[in-house]
Amino acid sequence: MNIHTDHRYAINLNVRGIQPSATLRINELSNQLRSEGKDIIKLGLGQSPFPVPDRVVAALQEHAHEKDYLPVKGLKGLREAIAGYINRSERMRCTWEDVLIGPGSKELLFMLQLAYYGDLLIPRPSWVSYAPQARIIGRSVHWLPTHAENNWQLTAEELDIICRDDPSRPRILILNYPSNPTGCTYTDDQLLAIANVARKYKLILLSDEIYGEVHFEGKHKSIARYYPEGTIISTGLSKWAGAGGWRLGTFIFPPELRPLQDAMAIIASETYTATSAPIQHAAIAAFNGGDDIEEYLNQSRRVLKVVGEYMHRRLSDMGAVVQKPEGAFYLFPDFSGFREKLAKKDIKTSQAFCQALLENTGVAILPASDFGFVPDHLGARLAFVDFDGAESLRLAGGDYADRELGDDFVKQACPRLVAAMDKMEQWLNSL
What we know:
- By secondary structure, the chain is of the alpha/beta class.
- The protein is 42% helix and 11% strand.
- It starts with 21 loop residues before the first helix and ends with a helix.
- It is globular.
- It folds into two domains: 22-51 and 292-430, Aspartate Aminotransferase, domain 1, CATH 3.90.1150.10; 65-290, Type I PLP-dependent aspartate aminotransferase-like (Major domain) (Aspartate Aminotransferase, domain 2).
- This is Aminotransferase.
- It comes from Marinobacter gudaonensis.
- Keywords: Aminotransferase, Pyridoxal phosphate, Transferase.
């Protein structure tokens, strides 16, 4: 029997044709090429290069025996720690009951779209999983235009234009800053203007602040300060505590959205039950903070800032148009200046560009088409994470503790990133 006519294989049409997550795909391809003996510089998957802080690892070891199912919404002690963390950092007044814990913020985002019946508004460019999740669930996605000269950031005016035609339509707006894929962030004035539009149309605003703690100057501010009644803050352990594989995310809700939090908890109870017990116990140490966590974050920010500035300068010198990152570990260069030379080699899409770069140099990056752009937009996302994070923190807090970090530090701590820029430059020059 032909497999395609056998109805046992009638895959959900919302899932058919969707590729696996682009970031995970590039990671697996990079690992496969490495296992075949090729030297691959991995700038595809945005995984924090830094180790999990020692005290948080010790807490996990100490709680490895915890085996009970925890409450669906999460361990009370952890929910208290997260409420305290948000109140300290954002001068807010949330309580432990406003907090929902999940196995990664990705899972919580999926449940939010399942629980709330509304359209999804996403600024373009945007992280690779927002839109596919909406498609799997069967929600409409509206991409909001942004522009390079405005650092690819959403403006209040563009948001208002989208909403005014059907003002009472239920919508979720996702705002992610510092941004994946650009590394750019918003000013207070920009956040206030967006908050005013969100309030006007009663939007649910999901503020994805997973990179908030890796704002290079440590000055991240949540839009929840300006639109508290409609904003859900999303964060977790993956990007600022180096614990991506631990899979712990959290949403912090305003009391006004308690019915939505409860609806998500019902979905959680019928799907994953609860987040891993040892991980939740260990996460309390991370969210409670302390001098050691502050030092870890301070050095992480110093390292990421100097690396981001170095990569930005190298890419600009090559002829790419790229915005200077202000947080996270990403750059979003545009190689349109090479369009004619690339076309002679039959490279006309960002996908083909990244494929050719990988084959010719061993440098793995992701095409702009994975972030919401049309195929022929010759941009790409570069995650500057292929370096020894533990060694870089040791150097920054040791030999370089009282010195300005510069190119000499980058060459010593991040030789693979320097090599990636050299290889990319040589390849572009050879076109």
